[in-house]
Amino acid sequence: MKNIKTEGEQQSRRKAFIFDLDGVLVFTDKFHYQAWKKIADKLGIYFDETINNRLRGVSRAESLEIILERYQGRLSKEDKLALMEEKNQTYRKLLEQMSPEDVSREVRDTLQNLRRTGHLLAVGSSSKNAEMILEKVGLTEMFHAVSDGTNITKSKPDPEVFLKAADFLGVNAENCVVVEDAYAGIDAAKAAGMLAVGIGDASAYEKADYRIQKFSELERIV
Ligand code: B16
Ligand code: MG
Asked: What is the per-residue pLDDT for 14?
């Protein structure tokens, strides 16, 4: 763990912040849960919120495999693709109800302040729905770059999503700070050679360079 400077001390030397989306900027896990629950119920598979927590930061295909750990039957590749598509349709319908009110004042103010102090901001998300979510909550213009599930071939803990974000920003990995709520995301940030900040679930992860409780603490990271 590195020190977090107190307010009023020197400005951060870090050039860029890369934010995970789900669990850091917005909280759509309840929608993921409802959409996967519908699939699990259809297949007669037990699924609860604890199992849902294992889906945090994990790709859609890997999420399905976790749910299928309790399934006795056999499914073809086509069956699985159809289930993922069905889940995504339900999820996207649920996302329709999102609005700017789904982003806290604290998150918005902190992002503004980081921009004001000259930082570049990017999103680094496993989600293929990141663009839609950012639009719905009115955050699209806040970021200089977005790296998401549509531009990667390997998901977290592979560093690809964050390396692409740094590349889009034109910044070296060592000048990037990744903010993550998932253990797999912290591992991905470290594998990318970046500083990792754990928030939410990942605030308990010892591999994070910084562990924070409140989003606004980012302004004090050096
Ligand atoms: P989609 P993040 C992740 O977003 C979610 O945490 C994870 O639960 C989800 O399975 C994954 O995106 C893929 O999402 O089905 O929308 O492509 O935390 O990396 O922003
Ligand atoms: Mg996340």
From this structure: 66
Q: pTM of the full predicted structure?
A: 0.91
Q: Which of 22, 28, 63 to mutate to test the pocket of ligand 1 (most atoms within 8 A of CB)?
A: 22
CA atoms in the 13 A half-sphere facing the CB of 94: 18
Which CATH number is 8-27+102-220 given?
3.40.50.1000
Q: Where are the domains of the chain?
A: 8-27+102-220, 29-95
The answer to whether 209 is a known catalytic residue is: no
- The CATH number given to 29-95 is 1.10.150.240
8: pLDDT confidence band, cut at 50, 70 and 90?
very low
Contact indicator for 140, 35 with CB cutoff of 8 Å: no
- Ligand 1 pocket at CB < 6 A: 20-23, 32, 55-60, 63, 88, 125-129, 149
Query: In this structure, what are the phi and psi dihedrals at residue 91, rounded to the nearest 5 degrees?
Result: -60, -45
In the predicted structure, residue 159 carries a pLDDT above the cut 60:
yes
Q: Which atom of ligand 1 is nearest to the CA of 129?
A: 16
Per-residue tokens: 169: 């920003």
